[in-house]
Structure prediction request, 139 residues.
Amino acid sequence: MPNNDCLFCQIVAGEIPSNKIYETDNVIAFLDINPVNPGHTLVVPKKHSENMLDADDAVLQEMIVVTKKVSQAILENFTEYNAFNLELNNGQIAGQVIPHLHWHIIPRTEDDGLKHWPGKSYQGDEARIVQEKLKNALK
Ligand code: AMP
Ligand code: ZN
Prediction:
């Protein structure tokens, strides 16, 4: 069901303009309005889901195939790029601002200033405990 209050549902419906670059039956890709670098693209399912966990598996599969195709086009047509980040902000605390599933293809240059997350260390047995918990949950 489209969500009338949802910006990306409105873009999918063509009610709000976007710089669309590609679409399939279930997925569209358009330029992010505030790019890290030119070509920064959002890959978006046409059917509203709030985040990755409530999306259909088949739609997620289509999204990743679209992502590969669009990423290749960006790298092949903009020689300043030979790398990209694929970023999903899943949930508000993770930085998700638009509550309609999307992920970012961010083409990278060496000096664009985008920082990676800082890493911590596991202490003592912590990694094994976390591993066991998740392994059991995933059985
Ligand atoms: P996120 O923080 O993952 O929810 O990212 C939302 C992204 O949507 C941001 O990078 C915004 O620049 C982008 N955005 C917001 N409004 C629009 C719009 N009308 N068209 C294209 N991109 C948009
Ligand atoms: Zn929506």
